[in-house]
C-alpha cells in the first residue's frame, strides 16, 4: 500500500529500482525502454557514469551553500557554459529547481524590468492556448491547457491566450506553411492592440509545444514575425524551452532553428537529465543590467537557487553531451525514428500526423483521418496507449488528448540522445502494437 499521493491511484505503479542506459528496471526485473525520457527529461539515459561521479564528487566537497552568502564553482561554471552557447545577446542565468520555477522567475524578471524602467503600466502577459508552462499558479495561469486549469480558474491571474501555431489543424488547404505562420503570428499583434500596447509586458510561448500538443514546431517564419511584433511594441519575448531545450530538438536551444533570440529563455528537464532537479532562466544583458544594477536587486528568490550539487550534475550532463557528440546522434536518430514511424503508420487509419524535431516527436491519433475528427474524450485513448505500452515494456508520454476538444490524442516520444538503431526499431514495434491494442479496446 502506498502512502504517497500519486497523480492517479487506480492502477498501482511499478517500483523503479535501477537504470541501464535507456532502460528503467522495476522491482520484479521488468525492463522498460524509456522512449519518452520520462517527460522529455532523461536525455542521457539512466546510468551515465561521469554524471554520477561528478555529483558524488560535489557531495564530498560541498553539497550546498545558501546563495545569499556564497556563489559556488559548479554554478558559475554552468552559467559560463550555457551563456557561451546561448543565442547572441543572452548573457546571464538564474538557476532554480525545475521548469515551473524557471517560468515564474521569467515572468517576475519581465515585470521588474519594466518596473525599474518606470513603465509600470506594463503587467499583461499574452500566451497561447494549448500550451503548458508549469503547475504553480503563475505558470498555470500563463499556460493554456484547459484541462489542467479547470479546477484552479478562480486562483489564476488574467492572461490573454491566442491560437497556437499548429499547422496540422489550423493551416488552410490553400495556404503555404509560410503564409500560415504569418497569419498565426498576426494574432499576437491584434491582441496587443486590443489590450493597449503600453499594458503588455511579455509574450510567452513554447518554442516547440510539448505536453499539450505533442511536439508541434512553429511554421517557418512564425517566430521571426513574432519577434518583429514584440520589438515594434517594446514587449519581451519569453520562450519556454523547459521541454524542447537543451538539445532535445537537435540544437542546444530549440529557437536556434527558428532564427530568433528571445529576451528570456527557460530550460529545465534536459538540463540535469533527471540526475538532479534543476531549471534555469536565461536573460539578455539588457534585462540583467536593468535589474542587477538597481539598488534593490532582483525581488525574487528560492532556497535552492544555484544549488551546488544540482549545478555539478547539470554541468557534467552538458559536458557529456558535447564530449560524446550527442547532438549529432540526436539529429541522426531523430530522422531515423521519424522515418520509421512514417513508414509504419503510413497507411494507418488512425494516425493523423507525425511531427517534431530531433528526438522530440509527436504522433497524433484521430478517429477519422480524412476529417481529423478526434476520438471521444471518454475513450481515454492516450491513457490506454500508455498502459498498453507499459505492459509491453515501453515508456511513452500521452499528451493532450481531447480534454480541450480541439485536438486529437497525442503520443510524445523523447528518448535519450544515446539511443541506437536497435532502440528505434524497438520503439516503433512496441508503439505500433500499443496503438493497435488501445484502439481495439476502444472499438470493443
Ligand atoms: N514548461 C514546459 C514546456 C513543460 O513541459 C513543463 C513540464 N512538463 C514545465 C514548464 C514545468 O516544469 P516542472 O514540471 O519542472 O515544474
Automatic annotation (TrEMBL):
Protein name: Aspartate aminotransferase family protein
Keyword Transferase: yes
Species the sequence originates in: Chelatococcus daeguensis
NCBIfam families assigned: PRK07483.1
CC cofactor: pyridoxal 5'-phosphate
InterPro entries: Aminotrans_3, Aminotrans_3_PPA_site, PyrdxlP-dep_Trfase, PyrdxlP-dep_Trfase_major, PyrdxlP-dep_Trfase_small
Pfam families: Aminotran_3
Mitochondrion in keyword set: no
An example Gene Ontology molecular-function term: pyridoxal phosphate binding
Lineage, highest ranks first: Bacteria, Pseudomonadati, Pseudomonadota, Alphaproteobacteria, Hyphomicrobiales
Family: Belongs to the class-III pyridoxal-phosphate-dependent aminotransferase family.
Lineage: superkingdom: Bacteria
GO cellular component terms, A-Z: cytosol
SUPFAM superfamilies tied to this protein: PLP-dependent transferases (SSF53383)
Entry keyword set: Aminotransferase, Pyridoxal phosphate, Transferase
Amino acid at each position: 500500500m502506498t502512502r504517497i499521493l500519486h497523480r492517479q491511484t487506480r492502477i498501482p505503479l511499478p517500483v523503479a529500482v535501477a537504470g541501464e542506459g535507456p532502460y528503467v528496471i522495476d522491482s520484479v526485473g521488468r525492463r522498460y525502454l524509456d522512449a519518452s525520457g520520462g517527460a522529455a527529461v532523461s536525455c542521457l539515459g539512466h546510468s551515465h557514469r561521469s554524471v554520477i561521479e561528478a555529483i558524488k564528487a560535489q557531495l564530498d566537497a560541498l553539497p550546498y551553500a545558501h546563495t545569499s552568502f556564497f556563489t559556488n564553482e559548479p554554478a558559475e561554471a554552468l552559467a559560463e557554459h550555457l551563456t557561451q552557447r546561448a543565442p547572441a545577446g543572452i548573457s546571464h542565468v538564474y538557476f532554480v529547481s525545475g521548469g515551473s520555477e524557471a517560468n515564474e522567475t521569467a515572468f517576475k524578471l519581465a515585470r521588474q524590468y519594466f518596473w525599474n524602467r518606470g513603465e509600470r503600466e506594463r503587467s499583461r502577459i499574452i500566451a497561447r492556448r494549448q500550451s503548458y508552462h508549469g503547475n504553480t499558479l503563475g505558470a498555470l495561469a500563463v499556460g493554456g491547457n484547459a484541462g489542467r486549469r479547470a479546477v484552479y480558474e478562480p486562483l489564476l491571474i488574467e492572461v490573454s491566450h491566442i491560437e497556437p501555431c499548429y499547422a496540422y489543424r489550423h493551416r488552410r488547404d490553400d495556404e503555404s506553411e509560410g503564409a500560415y505562420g504569418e497569419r498565426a503570428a498576426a494574432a499576437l499583434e491584434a491582441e496587443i492592440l486590443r489590450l493597449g500596447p503600453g499594458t503588455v509586458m511579455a509574450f510567452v510561448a513554447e518554442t516547440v509545444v510539448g505536453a499539450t500538443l505533442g511536439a508541434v514546431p512553429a511554421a517557418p517564419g512564425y517566430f521571426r514575425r513574432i519577434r518583429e511584433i514584440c520589438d515594434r511594441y517594446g514587449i519581451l519575448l519569453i520562450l519556454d524551452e523547459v521541454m524542447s531545450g537543451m538539445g532535445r530538438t537537435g540544437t542546444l536551444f530549440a529557437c536556434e532553428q527558428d532564427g530568433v533570440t528571445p529576451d528570456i529563455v527557460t530550460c529545465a528537464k534536459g538540463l540535469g537529465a533527471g540526475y538532479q532537479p534543476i531549471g534555469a532562466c536565461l536573460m539578455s544583458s539588457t534585462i540583467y543590467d536593468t535589474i542587477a544594477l538597481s539598488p534593490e536587486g532582483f525581488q525574487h528568490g528560492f532556497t535552492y537557487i544555484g544549488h551546488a550539487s544540482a549545478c555539478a550534475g547539470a554541468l557534467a550532463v552538458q559536458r557529456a553531451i558535447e564530449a560524446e557528440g550527442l547532438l549529432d546522434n540526436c539529429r541522426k536518430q531523430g530522422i531515423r525514428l521519424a522515418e520509421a514511424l512514417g513508414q509504419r503508420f503510413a497507411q494507418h487509419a488512425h494516425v493523423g500526423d507525425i511531427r517534431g524535431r530531433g528526438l522530440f516527436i509527436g504522433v497524433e491519433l484521430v478517429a477519422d483521418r480524412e476529417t481529423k475528427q478526434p476520438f471521444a474524450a471518454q475513450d481515454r485513448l492516450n491513457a490506454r496507449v500508455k498502459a498498453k505500452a507499459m505492459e509491453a515494456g515501453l515508456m511513452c508520454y500521452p499528451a493532450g488528448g481531447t480534454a480541450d476538444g480541439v485536438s486529437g490524442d497525442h503520443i510524445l516520444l523523447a528518448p535519450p540522445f544515446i539511443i541506437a538503431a536497435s532502440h528505434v526499431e524497438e520503439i516503433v514495434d512496441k508503439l505500433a502494437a500499443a496503438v493497435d491494442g488501445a484502439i481495439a479496446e476502444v472499438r470493443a
